Amino acid sequence: MKVRDWVKNLVTYEAGKPIAHAAGEIGMTADEIVKLASNENSLGSSPLAVAALKENINTFYRYPDGSNYDLIGKLSDKYSVLPEQIAVGDGSDEIINLIYSAFCQKNDEAIMAFPSFAEYLLIGAVHRVNVLRVPLKEFKTDLDAVKNAINENTKVIFLNSPNNPTGTIIKHDELMEFMKNVPENILVVMDEAYYEYATGKPDFPETIDFIHSFDNFLILRTFSKAYGLAGLRIGYAIGDKEIIDAINHVRQPFNVNKAAQIAAFAALDDTEFLSKVRSMIESGMTYLKSEFKNMGIEYTESYANFLLINLKTDAENISDKLLKKGVIVRSMSGYGLKEFIRVTVGNETENKRFIASLKSVLNEE
Ligand code: PMP
To answer: Fewer beta carbons within 10 Å, N or C terminal of the chain?
Structure first.
């Protein structure tokens, strides 16, 4: 079998280590591991989602509803948009892939900030799209530089706010100015995977309004983060009917499984869980920041459930040593930030374990 060279050379996404595997390697049990590497939710899944799954456990012999009718109906009420303005995917990862399928062909160009979510780059490569990486400026998306990178081959721009791995945001006026200057034939994707953590905070814009003003603006959100449903894989896009229709044309008929649809539908009502999650992150953030200040460690101003910290030493080495103590974080060396790690804000016990382990590892240096 001759695999094409460009396929062989594709870089695949480096997922966080599975807990059981990491535990086995260092002679610990899974319970002893603190995993703060994938921005998951330490409070677990929305209890309303779990209850709905239990109630529907005997229905999975049926195919899912390929139109996602109930979930889209609920989302359209929530955001006051038409059902035709919403598409649902097997995680927002899938929607990124569908965007490339629908709007790009080989040798087209996309633009992303860098560092930002790696999948824009990796999925783009599968579609043989050239993805330009525009460096962040002071850890923020540099919209002027993004605008200047646009050329006649540009088809899609991926923005991410709060940005993974920095947690920094794009403000309303900057975004408005940017959108006014982007040609209408270029799709601007605003990935808001961490929306539920940022909404309501000072300067974080409600971008739904932008879809009413710009036909080329698409928002991505997910149930993986604040709702705690990462393992079920479900995310959605909100935008102009024409964009949504194009996405629906290139997706599989049953791209979103039934369990994910049921859980997401129930989770949307779980305001109690969401506020518990937000307050856990807020107090965890306060604790971690004060510890970092005491330790002289710099961090970025994050609106999400993670912090990017500068260790001013080989971060890969530190994260390896943390792993040996049962604490998994994400070294950012693959993103060119050799002295940085990204740590997810966990629950109180996890955050304390992380800080104690970090102190001891840094002291050994
Ligand atoms: N966008 C960003 C910015 C992310 O950080 C993530 C999760 N790592 C995703 C999208 C993917 O989310 P999902 O689980 O819905 O595929």
So the answer is: N
Other C-beta atoms within 10 Å of 27: how many?
Answer: 9
| Three-class DSSP category at 343 | strand
Q: How sure is the predictor about 11, in pLDDT bands with cuts at 50, 70 and 90?
A: confident
Question: Region 251-265: what's the mean pLDDT?
Answer: 98
pLDDT for 32-47, tens place per residue? 999 999 999 999 999 9
What is the SS3 assignment for 286? helix
Q: Ligand 1 in contact with 91 (CB < 6 A)?
A: yes
- Determine how many CB atoms are found less than 10 A away from the CB of residue 31: 8
Q: Establish whether residue 41 lines the binding site of ligand 1, counting it when its CB lies within 6 angstroms of any ligand atom.
A: no
Following DSSP, what letter does each residue of 14-72 receive, concatenated?
-PPPPHHHHHHHTT--GGG-EE-SS---TT-S-HHHHHHHHHTGGGTTSPP-TT-HHHH
Whether 209 and 75 share a structural domain: yes
* Helix residue ranges, H only, 80-181: 91-103, 119-126, 143-149, 172-181
Q: What is the pLDDT of residue 16?
A: 64
pTM, full prediction: 0.97
Do 77 and 98 share a domain, yes or no? yes
Residue having the nearest C-alpha atom to atom 1 of ligand 1: 193
| Ligand 1 proximity of 92 Cβ (cutoff 6 Å) | yes
Output the residue whose Cα is nearest ligand 1's atom 5. Answer: 164
Whether 346 lines ligand 1, by a CB cut-off of 6 Å, is no
User: Which pLDDT score is estimated for 25?
Assistant: 87
Both tokens assigned to 350: 């996890």
The number of folded domains in the chain is: 2
Here the CATH number for the domain that contains residue 105 is: 3.40.640.10
Residue 301 in tokens: 């101003």
Whether pLDDT at 18 is above 90: no
- How far is it, in rounded angstroms, from Cα 351 to Cα 365? 21
Confidence of residue 21 (pLDDT cuts 50, 70, 90): confident
